[in-house]
């Protein structure tokens, strides 16, 4: 999955998103997306591993690593796939919004 492309696609839908790569071969990345005024997702890829951190009001709510982190990133990518606008998503978990769409 191209994190820079995901950030651009989510920005085009109205989300605040950014992606930065670093290293000579760009093998590390920091991806962030805002899901509301105080709700933030951060996905980090580095030599030390892959982490997903969800924060609200500057407090860490959830931190996942490895395959679990990648699974959460896929749910976030589905916001773009199903074109879910930020207004529908604020204060909800990605999985709860997507489950509702899949039952329709």
Structure commentary:
- By secondary structure, the chain is an alpha+beta fold.
- The chain has one domain.
- The chain has 4 helices and 5 strands, in the order αβββββααα.
- It has a 5-stranded antiparallel β-sheet with strand order 1-2-3-4-5, covered by helices on one side.
- β2 and β3 form a beta hairpin.
Task: Note the gap between the termini.
Answer: 27 Å
Q: How many structural units, i.e. domains?
A: 1
Biggest sheet details: 5 strands, antiparallel
Shape: globular
Number of beta-strand segments: 5
Describe the secondary structure blueprint for this structure:
Blueprint: H1 3-12, E1 16-22, E2 28-34, E3 39-46, E4 49-56, E5 59-65, H2 67-81, H3 86-89, H4 94-102
Summed up, what is this model?
With 104 residues, this protein is an alpha+beta fold. The chain has four helices and five strands, in the order αβββββααα.
Please tag this protein with its features.
single chain, 104 residues, alpha+beta, 4 helices, 5 strands, 37% helix, globular, DUF1815 domain-containing protein, DUF1815
């Amino acid at each position: 999955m191209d994190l820079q492309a995901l950030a651009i696609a989510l920005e085009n839908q109205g989300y605040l998103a950014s992606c930065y790569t670093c290293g000579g071969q760009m093998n590390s990345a920091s991806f962030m997306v805002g899901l509301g005024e105080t709700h933030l997702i951060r996905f980090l890829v580095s030599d030390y591993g892959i982490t997903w951190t969800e924060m609200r009001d500057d407090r860490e709510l959830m931190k996942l690593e490895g395959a679990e982190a990648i699974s959460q990133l896929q749910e976030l990518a589905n916001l773009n796939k199903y074109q879910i606008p930020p207004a529908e998503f604020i204060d909800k978990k990605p999985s709860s919004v997507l489950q509702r769409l899949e039952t329709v």
